[in-house]
Queue: 4 jobs
Job 1
Amino acid sequence: MDFKENLKLYQDIVNNELEKYIIKADCPEKILNNSVEYSLMAGGKRLRPILVMATYRLFKEDYAECLPFAIAIEMIHNFSLIHDDLPEIDNDDFRHGKPTNHKKFNHATALLAGDSLLNQAYIVISEEIFYSIKNEFKDITDNKIRAFNEFTKATDKMILGEYLDTELEGKDISKEMLQYIHENKTGALLKLCAKMGAILANAPEKDIERLSKYADKIGLAFQIKDDILSEEGNSEITGKPVGNDKELGKVTYVAYYGLEGAKQELNRVTNEAIEQLKIYGERAEFLRQLAEYIRDRNK
Amino acid sequence: MDFKENLKLYQDIVNNELEKYIIKADCPEKILNNSVEYSLMAGGKRLRPILVMATYRLFKEDYAECLPFAIAIEMIHNFSLIHDDLPEIDNDDFRHGKPTNHKKFNHATALLAGDSLLNQAYIVISEEIFYSIKNEFKDITDNKIRAFNEFTKATDKMILGEYLDTELEGKDISKEMLQYIHENKTGALLKLCAKMGAILANAPEKDIERLSKYADKIGLAFQIKDDILSEEGNSEITGKPVGNDKELGKVTYVAYYGLEGAKQELNRVTNEAIEQLKIYGERAEFLRQLAEYIRDRNK
């Protein structure tokens, strides 16, 4: 099976699973549920849950034990998108080619849909741990509690990163600060995906470290590629105006390294990511292709 | 020791403990930390953590095992206050006689401080469970995981309640809907406090039920009293303009029962709350006084 087919297969698993958590009841809070569903099912790439599952599958044949955590992380990701798009942060009108949540519903509903999704992620995790301990799967429960702990800390970093990105927009910041922002805003959650996948698969500490490093690098590559696309991408494909970041006074990797320098940097960190996978040979083929996909994507 | 002294003692314990979670570092995200601290330490009554601890102490001599959960619930309460005050929800300029978070800082910072507090509650809980399982306190860990699960579901209800309260403002709603909103918006979290206190103290199921019912009733009393104060309270003491709810077209217990009817209802549910405590005799003295305090407060 080629990479695109594999990716689609993973995406279908995630989408089917997410559907199970959508509340369809005709209750008074129907519109809030619709608002949550609208963003959660808007057709994102599902990169984060796929990264959890693909890492987990380096060590296991199935993905049952990691699926709830993969779902929870997609909920966190979507909470952050809804709040980032709000007028007081990025004030975006469109996402995935559709009106943003507050444009489709209203400001108050989008705020509370985001809050609800952040908390729903923890409902999913608590149900999973509660089930596990009731059935006395001691070792599995230990790993799930560790994953839960990592999850809370990475989400904290993401919120801090979002704060810094908003607060420092248009200001003169150092390259170190640029990196610090992205490590928190985008990097922490991607790193968490690989780390959780390995923890839940009961992988040795050495592997958890190695795969965290892999995710660190693809997180960085992801951000550099974003900046390159913003500078020279096809706005019809990316859905964002070309040169938009420059106009907004955003500090980007392109602003620091120049376009060619940023591309070299992108290649370098992608290679460093792939380097971490060598020890796993053929089993890591999908994760290798995923790093290349992040480097080569056009949106 | 009289009730007021006891209350003060509990408040001091909560405030001292909360202080430990305030990040004072001179890091780039300093202002976000300040914004969190501003709301968390603004001097609330600490009713929720006190309810956790007082319920726990019906069964135990100390409060060590329940304190992190008491702190986490105060974080959730403060997250909800910050977001409720935002322009898109209640648009409040003052709380506890001080500018609301978004007035003191800005809209984006208040949004993210609320997000951060919601997530920090789960950091505190996950650290506690992680510590517990690493040290192999099996039974205690089971109770903590159950408390975590109850915590996520009550917070979900609170967000739904907030949504309904916002969405239905100024609309004609039934008495049943009024009750449904308050059961979710205010009741769920208060009920959680007593329930968690009992669960964490390893109380028998019968007691968990009884104390949940007690908390249910004081939650209802709390809301009825709020509505009465809004109608006839001293605005200099309550900090809110008299008759404000009526002007906003809010459906209140006073609107349904009339002022005298609401006062009778308040007495009735307070007595029902106290009824639940009979079996515990003298040990429940503080919880009994707490119910009376909610009934008799003037702000």
Job 2
Amino acid sequence: MTAPRRLAGVDELIDKAVAGQPAAIARLITLVENGAPAVRRIAAALVPRAGRAQVIGLTGPPGVGKSTSTSALVARLRLAGRRVGVLAVDPSSALSGGALLGDRVRMTEHGVDEGVFIRSMASRGHLGGLAAAVPQALRVLDAAGFDVILLETVGVGQAEFEVSSLADTTVLLLAPGLGDGIQAAKAGILEMADVFVINKADRDGAEQAARDLRHLRTLVAESPGQWRRPILKTVATRGEGVDEVLAAIADHHEWLSTTGALAGGRRARAAVEIEAIALGAVRQRFAAVRGSAALGESAARMAEGAVDPFTAADDLVTALGV
Amino acid sequence: MTAPRRLAGVDELIDKAVAGQPAAIARLITLVENGAPAVRRIAAALVPRAGRAQVIGLTGPPGVGKSTSTSALVARLRLAGRRVGVLAVDPSSALSGGALLGDRVRMTEHGVDEGVFIRSMASRGHLGGLAAAVPQALRVLDAAGFDVILLETVGVGQAEFEVSSLADTTVLLLAPGLGDGIQAAKAGILEMADVFVINKADRDGAEQAARDLRHLRTLVAESPGQWRRPILKTVATRGEGVDEVLAAIADHHEWLSTTGALAGGRRARAAVEIEAIALGAVRQRFAAVRGSAALGESAARMAEGAVDPFTAADDLVTALGV
């Protein structure tokens, strides 16, 4: 009796979330974030209703004004009548988790507006858990009818870009005085961004930062017909330059659409998500074996120096019939 | 003709590394770091010769003086006649990679001492690659006869602690003025550390930081007979308090030995390494399928909303016969 009622509850939640009810959206995201048994059912219900939202990634090192920029972008998008979902993800640092949530407070100006939904996701457990949850949380917001989803990540490491790569367009935020950081930036990181923004552009060093970026941009090979990454300046606290950022994002979106890269990117992300879920299923089988006789004995023998990890791994894979 | 000669080269390299030759140690680490085909052979040769070294993890947020502390610990350990390997790992941030390597320069004072070997490993490619390479690099240093291996990681996120969990004893470094960071620290992170050190203890706020830590420590459940995490203060630039840190590490090592936790921890780490290698083998099979007909078609159908990722993942696992 209990199980069918619970499942009916999930269906009701899905209906309410699709109708745009904030409490239902929040509860659905919590379910997918926690890896609830209902995630399959939720995904199956939402996939046919998703695919409309434009996903914009915002990333950059701490201190560049990501929250303020997000807030400014939200304000402009609302003025244009677009419904906006914000997903703020902190994949790497548990210590800064508090700060991230603190930053959210600044965004309460949008808190009473039903056209805006804001959600923070911090890394609980291992990164794989978060990486699996973010695409599902995006799908909830997408199916809930938000026209634009801002995916904000803290930091500029590999993990942040793995999250950010879920966006159609990725904006890399930098600020003057972080020049050493820009110098050290790998060309690979620059390649992953579609739009560069130097925030706090009223401060000393903004022009130098722009010059550094323009130089670095020359190191990134661009073939004819490829997207040319614009370098923009903003003062997000005063809303300066924010319209230009939105225009650049719109340009990039149009470029994606006309070249077929939009659909291609979404197919590639679908493949990554499918593969990750499949890998998770295999990992669960291994986890079931961990502590059991087979793996425990191999581990003890390895600790004694009697077997190497590769031979033991072969045995494990064979034992599982993989 | 070529293959046997190359393998003979690896065997010679292993012999030289085990004999403690720095150039051979460095080349072996490069091989395991790059995932060279010889990794299996290297692991098989080194496992029986490893297991002697004491592995000490040092972690903490940027700016607390990890490099200086590492340098001070190395100096004391050398005075005590112990051979020391240092592995400095930056798992999360590509932007700070340059800074990390820059910090290494400070340690060149040990550069001419054959009893010290220092190596930086930055995250190239995905984190999984680094997580797989670090245990193998530790094994090279272990088999090369270093008595102590300092495993230094930047940051305090989950990824850093996954690396740091490879240590027998983990030291969490903090500094005054990072009080907000300490406040925000999750109990889970504190639980993963065995020794707390407040460096730069000559600065304002050191006592406050110690009080904060003592309070946080009360939140971590400690059963009778469990290790009680000491809270120490250092001024690493002047070497102050470093002997006390080494004494606390020695105490913890003795506690690990007498309770059987040392051997238990090493067995657990062996299990994690075996499992990771096995999972990597499965991931490679998936990667071979990515872009192929089966996964590509599923991804296209999912992007159209015709299939959910869980059903597609089931199909993928079935297709591989897993």
Job 3
Amino acid sequence: MPVHLSSPNPLDLHPVAGVQLGFAMAGIKRPGRKDILVMKLAEGASVAGVFTKNRFCAAPVLLSQTHLQQSAGIRALVINTGNANAGTGDPGYQDALKTASFVANQLGIQTNQVLVFSTGVIMEPLPMTRILEGVSQAIHGLGQATWFDAATAIMTTDTLPKACSRVIQVGAETITMTGISKGAGMICPNMATMLGYVALDASIHQDVLNRWVKQLADCSFNRITIDGDTSTNDSFVLISTHHNQAVQIQTGNEPEAKIIFEALKEVSVTLAQAIIRDGEGATKFITIQVKQAQSEQEALKVAYSIAHSPLVKTAFFASDPNLGRILAAIGYSDIDDLQVNLINVYLNDVCVAQAGCRSVNYKEEAAKQVMSHSEFTVTVELNRGHASTVVWTTDLSHEYVSINADYRS
Amino acid sequence: MPVHLSSPNPLDLHPVAGVQLGFAMAGIKRPGRKDILVMKLAEGASVAGVFTKNRFCAAPVLLSQTHLQQSAGIRALVINTGNANAGTGDPGYQDALKTASFVANQLGIQTNQVLVFSTGVIMEPLPMTRILEGVSQAIHGLGQATWFDAATAIMTTDTLPKACSRVIQVGAETITMTGISKGAGMICPNMATMLGYVALDASIHQDVLNRWVKQLADCSFNRITIDGDTSTNDSFVLISTHHNQAVQIQTGNEPEAKIIFEALKEVSVTLAQAIIRDGEGATKFITIQVKQAQSEQEALKVAYSIAHSPLVKTAFFASDPNLGRILAAIGYSDIDDLQVNLINVYLNDVCVAQAGCRSVNYKEEAAKQVMSHSEFTVTVELNRGHASTVVWTTDLSHEYVSINADYRS
């Protein structure tokens, strides 16, 4: 059961001028489900992306990175689920290239104007016949699909589609931005079996877009973790269709830029958090906040040490304030000169540890009460600096084991 | 159910001359179980230890490290289960000191000749009245307890006592070594809620003992992981009673030294592996072998990346050759210039990945068959150097979640 997540209302997902969507049911892994999505972008769109840091990164990731670098002007994205095309070597790369070239042919554009994305099982060859048939169908249907269809078409173990849309006023102009994401396992910073796409109609300069896509990932998709596993295929793509030429962001320093960036951040954070809320077997949505660190890097070490500890996560699942496990996780987070007698820990506003020891006023009942909620915040004060960070994660439940022990069967 | 582990036969556990054992049932956490162990060493014994690297290390760890450094000649060890005396600040340190001083008084030795060890729940104050009563009882019974009793007295979530003994011939002399260990969760390199003690009657010079304790830990207790959590209390202690003066190891370069070290290694590895075999919820015992790395450090990164991946561990549990998860874990093991197209992966002798792709001759049935065994080996060849390492781990089962969600209740 997802934690405070419901299916988006299709009526709340606004079309973005300059983006056409089409999907297909190609039967890549199972028949009868949407598993191919094609996004066609109007000429002149700007696109920026960030990708997995996994060294075993998938063939389509390598290809999409190359095509983005060639700056020929991206005109189409094609996404398949059911097969990751990772750990497939040169034949896998050729398959990704073949897919791009097929799309290019059908749309009358160049191969390097196409980005390719895959998600699913690793180390199995792509079923190219079904893929190309599906792509052909999806292209045929371009313009008929909604963002809700698109969100559904990229799901794998997700239980719900994930999408978010914002319409904002920038001066006299109305700007529309809509995004979709997928992912429920193998979720970790930098990034996860997670795909995210956000498009907006404002006109954002390529340099600004390149900067923003990294900044947005760093405050959303790079701050979530379910199981500490970084996938081979993660990608986050930001698209400006330039359809609304009245709003021009050239440097990112314009007053309008801040408004648009904040709205994009809201969309990205919502899409990223939706992945955690739908995390495999998740029964809780937990915010881990680390304050007073010497650097954000240091704060992140502590936050992930807590977020990745199976012992902490099972205690979250059990609503058991076994808080020593949190202290232990802080203790092994690999900060050499950490002074544990300066550390305070809170569950929501209940102070559980003060100066490295159990808080004098601590009542287990109060901590248990906080942990019994399906959403709560763990705050750690390190008392050694001014940097801070926030990470979102889930508990570790029986259901997680079931899902991952049975995923392929 | 532990994996290929049975309770040691008390008759196989040989007394070590110069070590007297006593236990008590002090009711620290629950009544009716052995929870205090006292080891009294004959005058002149040499002792060396390695301890947790967790910054939140427990009060008794701090105290024992100090006492070892003071080199007053350790004469007694006292171990309690049920409470870790960690995250307890200065009052916790005073409690550990009080315990040491109590033991010293009763035995007519100095306080800094006593080492103190605790394991159990973190961040709760030690019940000192019960502890001291128990210690008193244990001292009263010194000499009556066996190594089997000792192994039982240090258990927490362990389902079986862990002990190992070897009697070896060194020239005309017979050397006896016996050890015990405990631990089943929060198990990780450097080290875990794990305690290990090995005593032998040969005469080993303090400098050699100091070196050996580290070397032994590095090939045994520092090569096991269940959940990646490093505990606050881990300790491994090596004791030479010097009872058998006929075998003198002064430099470690003597021909006898090699024989003794190898036997100690066998005992340490057996004790460490017993912890994994009894791992919380373990249904499999998995050896992860990484070869052809540029350094052992690099090999360890890859090995732990695989051993800590919840996705790999659930696949092990399910006997599901979802081998892409292993490749993904290798890919995110943080080796910058890793060339994935050089990597081979084997399950026992079945080659599953060759040059970074699925092996041409790979049959899923063969991999499934290997994984259905309760013990198997994953071998990774990196093809970039000559260093290698071995790590032992478990799968991740429903039972693991149950145990850790319910541990305190």
Job 4
Amino acid sequence: MDNSRLCSWLLVVSSLALGSCAQAQNRTARYDLKMEDLKYTYGPFPPVLKVKAGDTIETNTVDADGHAVEAVGVKVRGPNPLTGPFYVEGAEPGDTLVVRFVSVDVDGKEGWGSLVAGFGGLNSSRYTPILGGGVPNKVWTYPIDKAKNVATFHAADSNFTVNIPLHPFLGCVGVAPADGEARSSIVPAEFGGNMDAPEASVGNTLYLPVNVPGALLFLGDGHAAMGDGEIDGTAIEVSMRVRVKVDLIKHKTIQWPRFENDNYIMAVGIYRPLDDAVRIAFTELIHWMHERNGLSELDAYELLSKTAEIHLDEMVDPNYVIVAKINKKFLPVAK
Amino acid sequence: MDNSRLCSWLLVVSSLALGSCAQAQNRTARYDLKMEDLKYTYGPFPPVLKVKAGDTIETNTVDADGHAVEAVGVKVRGPNPLTGPFYVEGAEPGDTLVVRFVSVDVDGKEGWGSLVAGFGGLNSSRYTPILGGGVPNKVWTYPIDKAKNVATFHAADSNFTVNIPLHPFLGCVGVAPADGEARSSIVPAEFGGNMDAPEASVGNTLYLPVNVPGALLFLGDGHAAMGDGEIDGTAIEVSMRVRVKVDLIKHKTIQWPRFENDNYIMAVGIYRPLDDAVRIAFTELIHWMHERNGLSELDAYELLSKTAEIHLDEMVDPNYVIVAKINKKFLPVAK
Amino acid sequence: MDNSRLCSWLLVVSSLALGSCAQAQNRTARYDLKMEDLKYTYGPFPPVLKVKAGDTIETNTVDADGHAVEAVGVKVRGPNPLTGPFYVEGAEPGDTLVVRFVSVDVDGKEGWGSLVAGFGGLNSSRYTPILGGGVPNKVWTYPIDKAKNVATFHAADSNFTVNIPLHPFLGCVGVAPADGEARSSIVPAEFGGNMDAPEASVGNTLYLPVNVPGALLFLGDGHAAMGDGEIDGTAIEVSMRVRVKVDLIKHKTIQWPRFENDNYIMAVGIYRPLDDAVRIAFTELIHWMHERNGLSELDAYELLSKTAEIHLDEMVDPNYVIVAKINKKFLPVAK
Amino acid sequence: MDNSRLCSWLLVVSSLALGSCAQAQNRTARYDLKMEDLKYTYGPFPPVLKVKAGDTIETNTVDADGHAVEAVGVKVRGPNPLTGPFYVEGAEPGDTLVVRFVSVDVDGKEGWGSLVAGFGGLNSSRYTPILGGGVPNKVWTYPIDKAKNVATFHAADSNFTVNIPLHPFLGCVGVAPADGEARSSIVPAEFGGNMDAPEASVGNTLYLPVNVPGALLFLGDGHAAMGDGEIDGTAIEVSMRVRVKVDLIKHKTIQWPRFENDNYIMAVGIYRPLDDAVRIAFTELIHWMHERNGLSELDAYELLSKTAEIHLDEMVDPNYVIVAKINKKFLPVAK
């Protein structure tokens, strides 16, 4: 890490007291997004910032269409412009990256939602093309009131308006893929990515497989609120200011993303059709319950059939995202 | 209705006060299940009881494997033995049957769950056969404590036990199908049936299309509690004592089942793959929001993308069941 | 009809007087369709004719929309009006019904094809509903020249015409379903039914599971020619004159329909999505190769991966139909 | 192109006669595979050879597991090692690359097939995981007799052997993907790739979208013969010697790969589930028939429903591959 980078550290109070960056244990590393540095794939780019395990990254992201990018005269090159990547020192293939969502705040006074031809769960779309199918392109704007913690929907075809409570989260949180792949920022897959998971919000921790040295974490696609399934293809799309604390579990390999909070363990399955996403999420959750809590796989299968919760995050992206979870109160004490 | 049937009416206090059955407005009609009269298809059987719109049916159901049937020496002829059918006077094709769940109580002191070869979301199954796939047949027994409102899971392969809160509901609630069909009691479809919907519980109302005169309502497959997806193919399977109030909406046609309660309208989509079940549920919900609340279809689509909730009821039966819903607080006043 | 045909008829009451029916060996039993007797479900109807194993049934069927029915002033009650059922004496659940297609001839001088809103592989449809999706209702008429063995397509929106070679087959060949079910004549499933299989044509033999006494065979939905997938929902739809020879394999149970001819064994998989139909067809074919030819299941799996042929019959009906087959020249001598 | 590259040109007689490379019209450019230069993704690598539109590339490929690679002591880094990329001068995004298969010959005396845990259409697999599912890892070796044009299957569990006619083709033919993506050599998608299409053989022409300057063509995964669906995950896997003639259609954009030969136009649909692959292939074919032959889209839809042929290439890779085609004899004269 060079000197100028060092200077970009935002030293937290406790570390300042110690009078030395080098001794800081829980530093906050800040990266202010440069629009020219936005990425449009999860892939092996040079990092915009290097951090250590235990550090908190403080940064900002732009909305899915990059309105904030165009506003400063930079050309947007695709959907979901990404902030990053962030290089986590010591991360090696075979490790697990831990991403704790410390704060996720809407950056701005309004969001937007839209219908776009060829994209959406009930439209004729790129991967489910239907003759004569189609909806018109259409945009809704949502004023956001942070004090009241709501965004406001204004119907286009009537006078109806209604407030929607904010639940800010990042639609895109992912690392560089395995096998030398680079994937579009529209794609969710084994490496996380455009999961459109409301679980990527304050209070939750995300685990991602490390596929390349440094992991290379990308963030983007802020959502002020979203319905299950993100059925027309958009949430309330916003720019964000976020802080995420990163950590490593060395020599721990996971096949698919996982979430955890105080009350739940949550396995993510990502594919098409939804049937397969459900199968992936549940077999992963069963493996996890077996490793973590010592239940046999058949006991875990049976217990989930009585207690599991399923969250359908989205059914509009190139892959679909299912979260299968179990409340920890139904589990033996973790090993 | 003959005299003996008349005597089976359980007259509620208010109707007694009026001194006359004929004048009673909200009668309770009781049918005590005869094991020989169990049905194994939703189809055009002679009714076990005729009721009027506005009546409450009080009856009992047996568990999915019919343990209670065998206990009295009657042969079980298949899964999900059904109580009924109940004939609702005045119901004609083109009407909608309204089923309000007044009480749904576990009838007995234990339930069961099981793994069965060829059935289950993560097994090799009849419709998703996998070479070499398979789990052993296995049964778990769940003691039920109604005072504490819990059932207890005992792990088969370790000493772990845990209590699971009861949420009693009917896995099977359906009417005779359209087009002269008769469907196995294992099947959920347009006529309802084996939806394994936790929504079929106290506080909720179910709407079903009327396909034949009298509607012919069937009930069965009681569940003391179930996880989302019913992933291994079983809930905590129990016999039940239930009361459901039936009503009619004349000349109102619906294509798929719907639920409603004080807070939500809920459209049910039932098919394979889950992708199609989601598409059915959401297009139905959009049509409903348009008819009921006056939103344009595109506004409804957009609003759902921000506020919808999805419940995956089951992914193990011959068809899969999705509930798409919206909180009424996000909707214009109903017309 | 020539004299030899006449002689092979099953002589009704008057023939009994001759005292020779019982000795007849390969009789032809004729049933001339009565429009009032058309059926619209595969189910437990009283038979229109009883035949013996080894008999040939000679009868006629009407087109999928029943134009021929309306022509004589009888009301059509749904799609795919069915001729039958034919009761095969001695057929019991657990047996296999053998249907050999002796002759399948177009009955008339033209056929039709159409687009119908809500039905079709590339339309918004009942089970894959798409917002704004849809094609207009539209009909094409196909003159049929039996001498030249062609039907002629006339484009609706240009002057283009082209001849299509005839390949006459029955879209509907099925028996009464298992488990007390009755299924619409639009449905293909374990009992056969609306398989829209070009394999149901002269030179091929179809095996169906017997689910009820007498099997109860139904025939209908003649096709003069059809493309793979029947992608818009219709073939060249015609009335037919057909002769099928029925036989029984006692105490032989099959789970799904099978076809066979001199060169191929063919297993049919019927469900949604197509992925599952493929899995069903191949696992059935592997079991068949194991039983019939003595190959181990793993050898059969590997050999199919090198030599199998797949025919996608249709992707428009409530279930989809896949035929997986292997040329007998690649198999050990049958046991 | 530097000098050493220039020397690798194999100048055909006619071009030599002209005395100048620059003037040659139909040159053959040869690249002898260097094992260290194998690629494992379709992505933006420096080219191994630059060619001109109209040139024929002569090269060789290794088998899917890289046995030929290990044989010379080079480490194999994944499945489907790829030869290339070949840079086609003048190719720009928005053009179409034309690949004509001039010769495709097995390079060696035997091939192999195998079962691998986690991969295969009837196995528990990465994207369709099944509890307890699984087949053992197992390899079959296929001696190849080019004189007789057959490979020989030897059963593992019996003495059965049978000859299988050769149909040599390339399982992998693809270009660098759009949107800055790089995809594993196991993946088929819009850019072609691991399509496992028997259509990639002598007599056929493949069209691929150009996504990056030079197109960057990759070749690999030779198959001596394959069954429809490649159901256990392998064909008869071999190294190959191939010649492909490349050309460009400037300013012609296609969304998905297409094949053509003297008799057929063929559109490729690639996704999951198969239902969506079929929808993609047919909508593309309808657009093609509209542009090429002037049929209206509804006439094309109807005509395909009567005459289309469908080929299920594979149902085992991360995406599934369907080819929908129509015989040119059923089409108006191409514009």
